Amino acid sequence: MKSILVFCFTLLTALMLEAITFPEELIWFRPEWVLLVILYWVIALPLKVGVGFAWFFGLLVDLLQGGIIGQHSLTYVIIAYTCAVFYKRLRMYKPWQQGFFIGILVSINQLIDFWIDYYFGNAEPTLYIFIPAVITGLLWPWSFVILRSIRRIYAIR
């Protein structure tokens, strides 16, 4: 029960960070907070956290951002599944090396999001869509340290 509460608290914090409004000029520099936290928990506790949680919190992000319902759920499920498949390999790397892989996963997320938005006429082609992936990959080592210390403080296994 304690592990579910801590997990939900960290994701609700990520949802609040996702809700922060950015100026129009800086919108491309917003990291994918919710996906970052989901990927941490998938790597840390792959038997407890998986695609079901990714799907649910993807729906919450869709509702928060007012986009197409199911768009983030689809991308989060694909990315969480990919991360769950490779979690043993990811654990062997240092956090900065994991950040590179996380950046690639978030790039895939951004690309799928762009395809869906472009299909519905809500986006124009630009390479700026990959900036959040770079920012999220760079934030990974610090997020990893913070979330790991939270997990150790509350003895979540």
UniProtKB/TrEMBL annotation:
Keyword Ligase applies: no
* Bilayer topology term: Multi-pass membrane protein
Q: Where in the cell is it found?
A: Cell inner membrane; Cell membrane
> Which controlled-vocabulary keywords does the entry list?
Cell inner membrane, Cell membrane, Cell shape, Membrane, Transmembrane, Transmembrane helix
Question: Which residues, if any, are the signal sequence?
Answer: none
- Primary location recorded for the protein, binned into one broad class: membrane
One Pfam family this sequence matches: MreD
- This protein's source sits in the domain of life called Bacteria
Give TM regions.
33-61, 99-121, 127-147
Q: Which NCBIfam families match?
A: shape_MreD
Annotated PANTHER family = ROD SHAPE-DETERMINING PROTEIN MRED
Q: Which family does it belong to?
A: Belongs to the MreD family.
What function does this protein fulfil? Involved in formation of the rod shape of the cell. May also contribute to regulation of formation of penicillin-binding proteins.
What name appears for this protein in its UniProt entry? Rod shape-determining protein MreD
